[in-house]
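Task: sequence design from structure.
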């Protein structure tokens, strides 16, 4: 086994094709974050840190490990902080101990927060496992709506009634565009999302130039495995809710949803997700992955759950010890708070207070 480290933009056409083939044969859901196009896109905006380890046997590529390298050899998953699915892409029977992989990449640690289920190579580093709710529409939207009606009839009835009221009282015809190519609604969405981050006391992701640049770039990306998809709910010509995510042929990975707070009483975000599910089913998409994290709207819409993992793989040594001191105490504190609903409620109220101060 030989490991060669390159920048994402240095991958050859042959290597990109092999990467796609390995993912297609893996049996894992076709999550667009695991496709080479996402790693290459991150490399455009994180050129100083983004790398790919190409695993070769007898001169042929048999695996790929995308990552970002920081100071002291501290590594993270590619696109850490915004990537919703992470890990290595390996051919059948390809095995390399994780410590050997880290040494080949000159990493003292590799951190992940959305490690794909089934990534056994990194199993020793898993600290926590989280549910990632999904909407399954492989049997068609009608079957999904019937399932919603059976498990939560009041939710579906109320949401559809609000959609009708939005049409009567919103000041124009309600219409939905699944794949909007106009960039103006994307800028509106990013503005809504930034305001939401500030309002809830969280870090504004779009204040980071590389993230906003990445989203704009992916909006124009078109490939079978990873295409940016902007879905917009309009009243007349005005957007009232929007979502930007990535799709493959069979998976829509939900990423950045937001809505205009002026229309909050109509629940436009829920209406948007129902129309997204309907359009996705028509497109042949079988799964909408809502992403890790608890939210009431996800509980209302989901039909099931997948799993993602958080943790870190380390090489024993001084640099790994420094990493542990810088990250693990905070991780354990977050875990402690999340596991206690009362403390979690206090923490959320504190974040909301920070948001009000910012406002």
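Answer:
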């Amino acid at each position: 086994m030989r490991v060669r480290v390159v920048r994402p933009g240095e991958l050859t056409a042959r290597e990109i094709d092999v990467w796609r083939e390995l993912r297609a044969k893996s049996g894992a859901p076709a999550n667009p974050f695991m496709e080479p196009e996402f790693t290459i896109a991150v490399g455009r905006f994180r050129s100083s840190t983004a790398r790919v380890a190409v695993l070769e046997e007898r001169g042929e590529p048999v695996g790929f490990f995308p990552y970002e390298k920081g100071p002291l050899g501290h590594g993270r998953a590619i696109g850490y902080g915004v990537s919703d699915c992470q890990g290595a892409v390996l051919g059948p029977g390809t095995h390399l101990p994780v410590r050997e992989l880290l040494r080949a990449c000159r990493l003292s640690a590799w951190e992940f927060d959305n490690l794909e289920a089934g990534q056994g190579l990194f199993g020793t580093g898993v600290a926590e496992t989280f549910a990632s709710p999904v909407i399954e529409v492989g049997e068609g939207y009608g079957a999904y709506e019937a399932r919603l009606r059976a498990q939560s009839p009041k939710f579906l009835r109320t949401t559809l009634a609000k959609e009708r009221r939005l049409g009567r009282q919103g000041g124009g015809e309600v219409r939905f565009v699944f794949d909007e190519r106009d960039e103006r609604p994307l800028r509106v969405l990013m503005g809504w999302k930034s305001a939401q981050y500030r309002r809830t006391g969280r870090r504004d992701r779009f204040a980071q130039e590389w993230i906003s640049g990445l989203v704009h770039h992916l909006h124009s990306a078109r490939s079978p495995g990873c295409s940016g998809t902007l879905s917009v709910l309009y009243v007349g010509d005005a957007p009232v809710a929007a979502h930007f995510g990535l799709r493959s042929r069979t998976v829509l990975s939900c990423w950045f949803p937001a809505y205009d707070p002026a229309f909050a009483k109509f629940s436009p975000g829920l209406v948007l997700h129902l129309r997204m599910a309907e359009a996705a089913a028509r497109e042949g998409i079988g799964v909408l992955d809502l992403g890790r994290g608890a939210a009431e709207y996800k509980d209302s819409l989901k039909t099931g759950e997948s799993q993602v993992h958080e943790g870190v793989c380390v090489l024993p040594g001084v640099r790994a010890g420094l990493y542990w001191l810088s990250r693990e105490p905070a991780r354990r504190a977050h875990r402690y708070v999340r596991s206690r609903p009362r403390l979690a409620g206090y923490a959320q109220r504190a974040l909301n207070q920070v948001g009000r101060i910012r406002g």
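The chain has two domains: 2-131+307-358, 133-306.
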